[in-house]
Amino acid sequence: MPFESNAMNDHPPMGAASEPLLQVTGLSSGYGPVRAIHQADLHIYAGELVAIVGGNGAGKTTLLHTLSGLHPVSSGHIRFAGQDITRWPPHRIVAAGVCQVLEGRQVFAPLSVEDNLRLGAYRQHRDPNWVRQETEHVYTLFPILAERRQQPAGTLSGGQQQMLAIGRALLGRPRLLLLDEPSMGLAPLLVEEIFQVIVELHTRGVTILLVEQNARAALAIAQRGYILETGRIAKTAPAAELLADDDVRRAYLGY
Ligand code: ATP
Q: pLDDT-derived band of residue 13, with 50, 70 and 90 as boundaries?
């Protein structure tokens, strides 16, 4: 049975700006006759870590691609940092500070770890000092990448490639980081490691929208969550409430 929509959490967290950093209203998008996202409403305030959880084919990737301009909007509106970005091209959305880490990591396999990171900084390439400083910052977050900086990215483990993909996005100076299923294909121990990194980024002030099939892990670290079912936002609540919700537990947590 579909979950009921829940209009709570419309208030900014303590100390947050009154307008959400990202405000999505009535968003729909799809593939020809296939409507993948239906009338989605969601928001995220600066400094929040928000999870969108849903099963296979729920529309998670389509939603993120639509937010970052990689997939066209059919109807609805996307506001980011006070501007209507609904029909902006991806490069302009990235320049505004929305950086997406694609599903499946997508690193440049033959290039070194360091060159992959530098590519994330292509907009700041005229400021080599900044690039060096921020690359070192990524290495402090992911010491294993520092050890392997000259190694081809394709020779890293799955978890290390995920760290590299996140690190590369950080070089884009994100105001909002969109993470598409960072746990995908990783062993449980590595999932834990990646999620600890996400918590660390959030602690350092990065605003994060995380989409995940691994509902338990995502809701365990998020402040708020949305349940996405066949392209619709079926429920939204603080993450702790979703974790304790009987319907969510049965459908997504397996107990
Ligand atoms: P997964 O967790 O399996 O990656 P998802 O939640 O990210 O799934 P999407 O990949 O966004 O879901 O897919 C949403 C819906 O859109 C699905 O019904 C899917 O079959 C459909 N879809 C996705 N890509 C295409 C495409 N290129 N052409 C047609 N339909 C598509």
A: low
pLDDT of residue 4: 36
Which residue among 27, 28, 31, 213 is best mutated to probe the pocket of ligand 1, counting the most ligand atoms within 8 A of its Cβ? 31
What total number of domains does the chain contain? 1
Atom of ligand 1 nearest to the CA of 231: 14
Beta bridge partners of 101: 179
**pLDDT grade, residue 12 (50/70/90)?**
low
Per the model's pLDDT, the better-predicted residue between 204 and 62 turns out to be: 62
Ligand 1 and 34: CB distance under 6 A: yes
Placement of tokens 């660390």 in the chain:
200
CATH number at residue 59: 3.40.50.300
**DSSP calls for 192-229:** HHHHHHHHHHHHTT--EEEEES-HHHHHHH-SEEEEEE
What's the burial of 206, exposed, middle or buried (CB within 10 Å: 0-12/13-18/19+)? buried
* 12 occurs within a structural domain: no
Task: Please compute the mean of the pLDDT values over residues 141-146 and round it to a whole number.
Answer: 92
Q: Which residue is it, tokens 């599903």?
A: 103
Q: Is the CB of 67 under 6 A from ligand 1?
A: no
**Domain containing residue 96:** 22-253
Tell me whether residue 237 is in a domain.
yes
Confidence of residue 9 (pLDDT cuts 50, 70, 90): very low
Residue 58 domain-assigned?
yes
